[in-house]
Amino acid sequence: MPHGDTARTRWRGRIGAVALYAAIALGACGWCGHGPEAVIENVTPKVTLSRGTTEPELIDSGTRARAGDTITTDEAGAASLKFPGGSVLKLAPSTSVYLESGPRGLRAHQVRLLFGSLDAVGANRELVVMTMVGAIEFGGDRTEASISANEQGLSVRTLIGEVTIGDQVVGAGISVRVDSNGIVFETPDGGAAEDAAGPAAPGEAVLLSLKSGRGAVRQVGGKGRFSAVKPGTQLAPSDVLEARGAAAVVDLGGLGEARIWIRSGIAVGSGDSGGSSPSFETRRGTAQVLLDGGMRQSVAIGAARALVLASARGSDVEFTTDARGTRIRVYEGRVQITDADGARHELWANQEAAVTATGRSQVRDRETSALKINPTVRRVLVAGRMPAVTFIWSQLEGEGPYTIEVARDADFANKLIVTDVPDTSFVTDRLQSGTYWWRVRNATKSIPARAVSFGVDRVTGEADLRKNVVNASGERTVVLYQQYQPPELTFRWTAAANADSYRIDIWPDGKFDQPVFEQVVGEPQVKVASGTLKDGRYLWAVTVLDASGKNLSTSDMYDLTVKFDSNEMLLRIFEPRAGARVRGNTVETRGMAAPGAEISVNGKNVKPDEAGRFKATVPVVGSPPLVIYRMGGNIFVRALRR
To answer: Which residue of 10, 32, 409, 421 lies most exposed, with the fewest beta carbons within 10 A?
Structure first.
């Protein structure tokens, strides 16, 4: 890969994960239902596998893993996952991965790196590794890379071939660091590498990089034929640059960092934008302007002009132009528009504008996402593609604007979003799985930081409900429940050849003077009524009795723990399935919750019956269509499709 793009590229956390995750993660697995997804080999001690909601269990070499499994190594553990197509993951100590389903029609092994480090070999373009900051796609017949993820971000080093992170290709021998601020290419000694042609001087423009295998062309002076260009090419003020299927990055020079991502054609202009960088003109396609704090950038839009003003955090503004005009979307910073009639408009983050081909402009708020997060929401589980999110809050004392901050840590040292908005809401499509902290303030007051976690809802059917069976296995049994009281439990043990009956005794931990449950039964199992065993630890044993009631033998003492499951969400949704097609404006939903639970589905109150089951027909909301379930501070989302 030409790595002229080696300075920090300000992606603002938008590393292309949304588009790639949608392409990879939607739909049911096309092959995983016909066999194991991976064979786990080279297992050292202390490697566990958790299947769905089950407790982690120690595993040996030869264990077969499938979608929905989590494999974790402790500080001394290691293991290799071998996939049918030849791809291999080598897990380092203190590492955890989750196997996700691939889409129909694609041979994609999709693995989510939860934390830790691994070495990956991707064969035949089959491997995708998901991380907290985006997706890593392995290309070519064979690609090898080392990947490490922690709370600070992601480190990737490509050894053979090339991997793609969003729109950026990382070639062999190149290392990158990725966090919420962007991507940094590193030299072998660990330092940040310099641009191949050096940074652009104020008033100049330099083509920094292109996505490998694709290209861009330049029309010198805006006349004559287009000719190919490569990274490091100096662009004159009147040159026209067109990225043909590539993601081209232009350094506009200046006192700080100014970048334009081009996904089609623009013209590098000759105007002035206050001395920090040259102006440019939008043409067909999409350009994204990324500026350091305090900079400004002038953009010509036909007969209108836009001035991008970076806040202290910086700016991130997208221009999309076609024959009808240009749409301007502000993610961070502000934009001042002067249209052909001389009218002036100001856009804030959370707003967008349409400028017609004749230079007339109209400002509007971005479409509010149906998935709304207020300060009381703690957790969100999404099945399907992650939708945009709207943060909402009450009006604070004093005047706006409001400053919203979204970070990955409680200390707000790793901020993903810092921007000003004119009203009491903010829309973002930059959030993926993980925990975020957010807070809002104006000049007078502030809303204290609140944490909200986003995750993938992997429980989609009745088969995933817990089986409340306690077996005499010799191992400790843990029963987790999510009702108002512990459920009915079935105790089972091995039948004895000379048994006429059995007596089961269950004692609270350390209290053997009086069992909490005692019963004689004629078969090797017994049911214990709901609520008999409260939260806590119990010991139980079975005594074999003859026809006269004489004790023949007594089993070992078995260990049982019953506890309320506060870590899992409290709702099971059977219909609709994620990705289901919606034909009209309503959809039927059914599921299960605790009896008496207060549930809202797309704004409609739904009450479970005495068994905890519910069924309702509700209107779908949003685009793409969503079904949103709210229960207390928890939200479940089913992303559907038309």
So the answer is: 409
